[in-house]
Amino acid sequence: MKRISIFCFSLLITHYSLFAQDIFISKGKIEFEKRVNIYKNLDDQRDNDNENGFDWIGQMKKQIPEFNVTYFNLYFDGDKTLYKPGREAATAQKIPDWFKGPASDNVVYCDLASDKSTTQKTVYETTFLIQDSLRQAKWKITNDTREIAGFKCRKATTIIMDSVFVVAFYTDQIVTSGGPESFNELPGMILGLVVPRLHATWYATKVELANPTPADLTAPVKGKKANNEEVTQKLKSSMKDWGKFGQHAQWEISL
Amino acid sequence: MKKNFILLFFLSISMYVSAQKSGLKGVINDTSANEKLVNTTIALLKAKDSTLYTFTRSKQGGVFELKNIDSGQYILMITHNRYADYYDALTFQPGETKDAGNVMMTLAANLLADVTVRTKIAAMRMKGDTLEYAADSFHVRDGATVEDLLKILPGIQVDKNGKITAQGEEVKKVLVDGEEFFSDDPTVATQNLQADALKSVQVFDKKSDQAEFTGIDDGNKTKTINLKLKDDKKNGYFGKLDVGGGNKDRWNNTGMINDFHGKKKISGYGIMSSTGKTGLNWEEQGSYGEAGSGPEFNDDFGGFIFWGGNDDEFSSGNYYGQGIPKAWAAGLNFANKYHDDKQSLNGSYRFNKITSTGEGSTLSQSLLPDSLFYNTEKAKTFNSRWRHSVSGIYEQQFDSSFSMKLTVKGYTGHQDTYSDYDNQSLDAGGILVNKSLRHTNAEGDNSNLNANLLLRKKFKKTGRTLSLNLSDAYNGSNTDGFLYSLNSFYNKGSLSFEDTTDQEKKNNANTNMFNSKITYTEPIVKNLFAEFNYAFRLSTSDAEKLSYNKNLDGKYTALDTLYSTHYSFDVTTNTGGAALKFNGKKITFGAGTDIASTNFNQKDLLRDTLLDRNYINFFPRANFVYKFNQTSRVFLSYNGSTQQPSITQISPVADNTNPLIITIGNPYLKQQFIHNFNFNANSFKVLSQRGFFMYGNATVTNNAIVTNQVTTPGGITTYRYVNTNGNYNAYVGLNYFKKFTKADFNLNWGLNFNGGRYSNFVNGEKNRTDNYAPGFDLGFNKQKEKKFNINYWGRANYNISTSSINEELKTKYWTQSHNLDFTVYFLKKFELNNEVHAELRQKTDIFNTNNNVVVWNGYIGRKFLKNDKGLLKFYVYDLLNQNKGYDRAINTNVITERNYNTINRYFLLSFVWNFSKSAAGLPAPGQ
């Protein structure tokens, strides 16, 4: 009798877990933690590699935290996704804005079915409202997998802006082909994103099976209207004398 | 050949018919349960690079269909989280629609996991489009060059001439740590650099500079190898040699070198100059100088602050005093980091010597309630001083939450001065009142020691910190000198009497300040912190000024008690304080106060008197920052603080260094209290490249320490220090700058205003001197790389001063300053530079000499050597020979104008050589 009950119990568990895995999610809310290594970016942005004089960068590093951690929420329902800044991270010490970089609080609305996106991006003094098609990334699919927030994710890579390497981990258990920032159109939801050149990672910390309200999935409306090409041209002319710092900033803004 | 034709034929056919799209359909099944699988991902990847071509998901009944597929080779990838991945290779013919039929998926649980995957740092790996070889994974003999290493790397060939081929293409560029070295010739790097210095070898296609700059790929790529160095192999040196000589005993020779071995750096320099260079300039300071305090994070402001901490003539790069200088300087610095940078040590030694000869005249107008005096003084001085300085900074990070910083600095020096003065005073009617001839000389030693220890601990709870700061500062000086003065007094223009002062003066002064402060911060709620502090300070000063008259034997042994003192002044302060800080996203706010109990202990050791006083003081402070966005903000702050009188102001003795101007200290002086208000707002538009900033500052001083002036009809003035109210100072300004992108130039302009009131007492009457100076400034800059560079900046101010004791006598004048810097580069190797500084000072009724000066400097230079590392320069300073020293002050009832000699026209021929070497035989990047 005892044996039978154990057997039944284990059956129940197995069945439950299988059942759980078979859920395909098409709506909900994902929280992403974005981590940017400020120290490494400081090193990269230096134009002059001659670091043999007085070590200012080293002095600065001692006074600010190594990582800038911010949170974003991604709401999704079918073909529509909205990515926007989420809760504030608890930090004791402020990081000067200059070190956080531009375009660090983007709001991205994507309509995957109609290949349209509306992005609100604060680039220094200007808030742009960029209306354009979705990013046309050539994703290279790999066999590597890893688990993020309890989901098995497959690794895909791409190169954007001719030279910036991007790694995405997506799960096909979430049907919506969305992702953080402007990255999407993989066969599932991107739960992890890595841009090595910017020393930045986005990883999902939790996936909530919630029903996003229409307000959660409303495209941003405020900002100076432009398309991606116009913003790129503007950045190029403004930052042409900015050396590595300018190049870095342009990559950050173009994510 | 025939084969090729056939292939070509098929290729063109397939291109021709590629308009016809293909399709794929099928049904996804579970092998075991024979269940139709919904939501399975069906993806087509391109066979050649596994990029995602298209994908879909299976619908009800496991059905899927992909349309509009271009013909070609693909990989079909079918995935479902519970099932093993399904792969198949597919080739679509134009117009072909394949039916995959029933695709059977196998439960992942049914597959045996018999493959273990080990990760290991691969000897070769692809990083994006870069192929990277880990250098240590490939073995070469000791002392092998990079070329030897390249020969054995798979996929790379090196021929006998050193020509490198990678992935079948010739390598045109070799970079070291991403930098291009010396020349386009790749062998320079590969044949000189040692293989064991490398961490990795990277092979990639470098886009053309144009493409990299614009981000638009023009298809011009160069096969490039980047050699990444190991950190500890970043060894080398760089330096600069500048030798120059000219007419009129003008020379300027400097040599500097920085030698680095990984994180260990040793730099040294030597300077000898009679052209005004006394030390390292700002730029050189960064490469060859001692460790400064560095940028400091300011919590209130939310940003980094760079302190320009050069407070005396020995720490500044250029002579700013009067007269003609000759300077010698030498320095040696050491810096190293240990234990993963957890410990760092900086040490430095510096020697400076400056001699200067000065000659000048001062004209002043002294306003009195019912009369005035004009005074002319001619002076000649010689001054020689030297100093040995040492400093050390040791930092240790015990763990991520606990750190220590110890700073020790000190110097010992010597000074020697000789001065001759020739002085005369006239009354309002221009009639001679007195004359004086004066000679002083003094010789003495001075020394200083500063030590500071800072311990900081962060606790686990975010925002809870504890810090302890201990510091001690000592200053000491002693001088021995002589004063000889012959004073003649006139009555209605004829000599009435004369007196002489002939004294030896021995001065000995030292002060010591001990400071200790402990600060604790505690988070209250999110973004709100409380700060508590306690501080103990002890300041002790001791000043001995002894004046001796000549005795009958001709020796200076008779103490003149009227002009002698030995005074000690101790201040003990206990301070406790609390403050609140709010650190929000848009708003940063802080307010608090310290309460201090201060004790003054004053002892007159010569006359044996004691004065003991106690004060309670508040030190309120508040600051507020509002951020409109990342690049615009306003900042407001207020703080109140006390300032103690100096020992000279407080010791009750007359100073007769100038017998016609006597100053007497006042032991009953109270401390001053200063209210300081600060405001600034700035907005910088990065994209449109314009910016705007405004600033303002006001200080109001209560119980300000000012002078009470009594001038006798004979022209002898006595100053006593007293406290008074009603002194304030303020300045405001705004600046705007903009880049005009089309015409490619920068323009900036600004408005500024300075004003203040200085209250003092003149012959028993209270006097208020009000002075205002509104002004305007303008700047322009345009440059074209390797062609020219033009820079203009200028400012104009209108100065007004009135004293209440004689309001009819207003002083008003314009001052203007214009600067033009213009450099042209021509014939590849030549450059021509012009620098014009014009100072225009309007004459006034009293100051009626022409003080306009146009200083025009310029040089023509030719570059030499590889990478233009050498520059031969012919330089002329002050071509028009107009330069002169000038100073005008109008902010009390005594207005003065001073003219003095300074460096005039000279010609200098010099050669500058920048040299460098790094990384086991490689020339280092240019500085």
List the helices and strands and how they pair.
The complex is a heterodimer of chains A (255) and B (927).
Chain A: H1 2-21, E1 27-37, H2 38-45, H3 56-63, E2 67-77, E3 80-85, H4 97-100, E4 107-111, E5 116-123, E6 126-132, E7 140-148, E8 151-160, E9 164-171, E10 189-195, E11 200-208, E12 224-226, H5 228-238, H6 243-253
Chain B: H1 2-16, E1 22-30, E2 41-46, E3 52-57, E4 63-69, E5 72-79, E6 86-92, E7 97-105, E8 124-127, E9 130-134, H2 146-152, E10 156-158, E11 164-166, E12 169-170, E13 173-176, E14 179-180, H3 187-192, E15 198-207, H4 209-214, E16 221-229, E17 235-246, E18 251-261, E19 264-273, H5 282-288, E20 296-298, E21 303-305, E22 324-338, E23 343-367, E24 372-399, E25 402-427, E26 432-458, E27 465-491, E28 494-525, E29 528-550, E30 556-559, E31 565-583, E32 587-604, E33 609-629, E34 632-643, H6 647-650, E35 654-658, E36 661-664, E37 672-685, E38 690-702, E39 704-711, E40 717-724, E41 727-740, E42 745-762, E43 765-784, E44 788-803, E45 811-826, E46 830-841, E47 853-864, E48 870-877, E49 885-889, E50 894-900, E51 906-918
Parallel strand pairs in B: 1-7, 13-16, 36-40, 39-42
Antiparallel strand pairs in B: 1-4, 2-3, 2-5, 5-6, 8-9, 9-15, 10-11, 11-12, 13-14, 15-16, 17-18, 17-51, 18-19, 19-22, 20-21, 22-23, 23-24, 23-50, 24-25, 25-26, 26-27, 27-28, 28-29, 29-30, 29-31, 31-32, 32-33, 33-34, 34-37, 35-36, 37-38, 38-41, 39-40, 41-42, 42-43, 43-44, 44-45, 45-46, 46-47, 47-48, ...
